Amino acid sequence: MPFLDLQRQMGLDMDRWLLRQSTAQPYGNAGACHAFEREWVECGHGLGQTRARRECRPEYEDFMECMHRTKLAARLKKILEQRDKMIKEGKYVPPDYHSSQQEPKP
């Protein structure tokens, strides 16, 4: 820590860029993925980088899923592909309110 805390005096927060969810949040609420990040950091604390990568992989994957939602997007894509396939085969007809051909409401 420097003798003069220039970051705080200038209103900068350069040291917390690694922990995205741990920074100060509006209204004092915790970030959406704060719990996952905390589990990941607690798991890897004191292990060293090599061991932490191997032993804390589930916690890291949970944190990354919470941040980026890649598995959720892939699942949604599969569901929509299945829906389109069933519509094409004639096994499923979407309700009227799912199409843009509704009558306009007054």
UniProtKB/TrEMBL annotation:
It is a peripheral membrane protein. One of its GO terms (cellular component) is respiratory chain complex I. It is found in: Mitochondrion inner membrane; Mitochondrion intermembrane space. Disulfide bonds join 33-66, 43-56. Pfam families: Ndufs5. Keywords: Disulfide bond, Electron transport, Membrane, Mitochondrion, Mitochondrion inner membrane, Respiratory chain, Transport. GO terms for biological process: mitochondrial respiratory chain complex I assembly. It comes from the Eukaryota. InterPro entries: NADH_UbQ_OxRdtase_FeS-su5. Accessory subunit of the mitochondrial membrane respiratory chain NADH dehydrogenase (Complex I), that is believed not to be involved in catalysis. Complex I functions in the transfer of electrons from NADH to the respiratory chain. The immediate electron acceptor for the enzyme is believed to be ubiquinone. Belongs to the complex I NDUFS5 subunit family. Mammalian complex I is composed of 45 different subunits. This is a component of the iron-sulfur (IP) fragment of the enzyme. This is NADH dehydrogenase [ubiquinone] iron-sulfur protein 5.
